[in-house]
Amino acid sequence: MIDGTTVIDFHGHVGSWDSVGMIDNPTIMMQAMDSVSIDKSCVFNIFHPDGTTSNNATAAFVAKHPDRFIGFAYVSPIMPDRMLPELERSIDQLKLAAIKLYPHYTPFPLNDSIWDPIYEFANERELTIITHTGQEPTAAPKFLIDIALRFPKAIFVAGHAGNIEPYRSQAIKAAQSCPNVYLETCSSFRSPGVIERLVMEAGADRVIFGSDTPLMDPRCQIGKILTAKISDQEKRLIIGENACRILKL
Amino acid sequence: MNSLTFQPLVPVFDANIGVGHRHDRIAPFTDSSQLLEEMGRHGVSRALVYHVQGETRGVLNANETLFSWVENQPSLYPQWMITPSIDCLKQLEQLHSENQVSCVRLSNTIECKLPFVEWLYNDLLVWLSEKKIPLWISLADTSPLEIMETLSHFPNLVSVLVGAHYSHSPLIRPFLQRLPNSYIELSRFEGLGKVAELKTEFGTKRFIYGSFYPRYAMGPTLFFVHQLGLSQSELESFCAGNLENVLGMETLI
Predict the structure, then answer these.
(1) Taking the domains of chain A in order of start, what are their residue ranges?
(2) Chain A nearest C-alpha distance from B95 (Å)
(3) Could you give the domains of chain B?
(4) Rounded to a whole number, what is the distance in angstroms from the first to the last CA of chain A?
(5) Rounded (10°) angle between helices B86-97 and B118-131
(6) A213 and A29 in contact (C-beta within 8 Å)?
(7) Among A220, A226, A229, A239, which would you mutate to test the B interface (most chain B Cβ atoms within 10 Å of its Cβ)?
(8) What fold characterizes domain A8-246?
(9) Rounded to whole angstroms, how far apart are CA atoms B99 and B133?
(10) What does the pLDDT look like over A148-185, one tens digit per residue?
């Protein structure tokens, strides 16, 4: 908690990607969280397209520290028959709180109809979906406009807020066009003025702090918010209040 | 930590700031006073600055233009850009004869198509070694393979490896191990737990704070370094002391 605000990191990973040094060691993750007063981190495993393997790993990880981690479900349209049963299992039985999508691991753009069952599921249950967005052809944030307008009861969070231009501008436009689109901040491209621009053009109530832990250190990523030229109240919204609202915490 | 704002606890000397506009990228500041204002906002008291035109276009002009940024600005220290050309070495020798060279920075060898190989850079690196001038090399802009291979031929040359990305994480330990005169600058090095691992193995003297501004925002890495659980003296070393040592400056701490 920072200055009375519960701090939620909206973007974290379960699983190891050791070729780039990413190891999901909860002790090290929590040490970093503690040092900058992050209360809870949202985590998901995106390495298994069947969904089940990923979600079991996420649930097991969260079960060890349920007060510090919130698990999100993962499914992939490269195994389309698994999507709905696995979403039902992971939300209803494993109690995962939201859905993560990673279009870069598929040949399907986010607005391809193959994703629709996931969006319909989230829309019916008023769930949040965080999806990777960026320069990858399947992950362009402009696709969110098509989807978010069709599924207005679901909430869509643009992971990395498009990452770089012109995709960052697409993400901002999606947030401006759709009240159910939010922009998440983690990125290794820490260009100056980005947080300020997201706040100015999309509104602080639509920007959500995320770090990509343990791929990236949450201390550096929350530093983007705390050192940005924005007001304290805008910082409060970004580091936790918006996440608490959409996750109904 | 319980504050929505941040100011550094120790004097800060930024090892990695580019000034000027690139041919393809506009800087968020147009003169040294605007840069100093941003440094002041983040509590950065000194900075090593190079001109970004030298990253991918002419280093000769970049170095000439740099004078206008640093003159009468005691908190800005010039860093000269280099390529392996004879003209560049001549310019450097002239600057050195005027006692103006404390360090140099390699251009973007990938975009310039000037691979960092021994047979191309030998004369320059021999000269830098003889004059004890440290060399900044951007891992964002030069092949790690070439860095390791080429620096191995110049064991006395001090190097500062800047812009290491999280994807470079597995490479940094062997760099520090095999190149005992190398230092790691921290602007992009944010893999979880990686600095702590390296500090345990190599001590506190091999790390240098830099922001890589304006390619990157100035504040986040400085904030990050302050949250690493360092002692006061370690923090002073990370934020200024180690850089002062590399530059052969009398420490101000």
Answers:
(1) 8-246
(2) 32
(3) 13-247 (3.20.20.140)
(4) 14
(5) 10
(6) yes
(7) A220
(8) TIM Barrel (3.20.20)
(9) 12
(10) 999 999 999 999 999 999 999 999 999 999 999 999 99
